[in-house]
Amino acid sequence: MKKIFVVIDGLDGIGKGEIESAIKNYEEQKGTNILDLKDFWKEYHRHPEIHEIENYNMLISAEPTRTWIGASIREEITADNRRSYSALSTAHAFALDRLVLMRRVILPALEKGIKILQSRSVVSSLVYQQIQSREQSTILTAEEIMSLEGNKFQLENGPSLIIIPTINNVEEVIKRLTSRIKNDRSAFENMEFQKKLKPLYESQWLKNLLESNNIKVQYLDAGISL
Known about the structure:
This protein is α/β, with parallel strands linked by helices. About 50% of the residues lie in helices and about 15% in strands.
């Protein structure tokens, strides 16, 4: 059975949601029965059990999740609240949220032949937490980030494809961010931080790393018209 696990990962405001919506609409037109986990988390404040998802053909997921550890990440650790958490603490929180999601939902769904479309992944941790550590004048290497159990587990059971939207002008993503309504504004959503993320997302190092884990990488120009 072919397992389809697709991730969209990139800068804040670069258009991940638009790509997700386009794929979702395409699948719905084919008659795919889709469960958006974001809606499930909002309604039930937990992850679904396998019997609650086995009749779906596709799940739409997100990291961090919006329940349990993921809710704490969004509401406290990365929130723009003037409280600062270290890059290492942040990386640990994301990795644990990732591990629970993978073990509890993603892998059981893939075993049932359910397709996964997800926003963000271990790639975000590799990019964001390296830059965060530099901002805090500490050193958190990619190797240290990858060694965390949840990150290692996702790379070993990784997506079949990661789509990375790119854009020439980072100012454009900031304009998009400021124009949208969002109740969990991240402390990372500022132009200087996003500018530092861009070269890592587009680096040969990241592409080689993912491909060495049998993950296909596809870059997509997010600067053109919708």
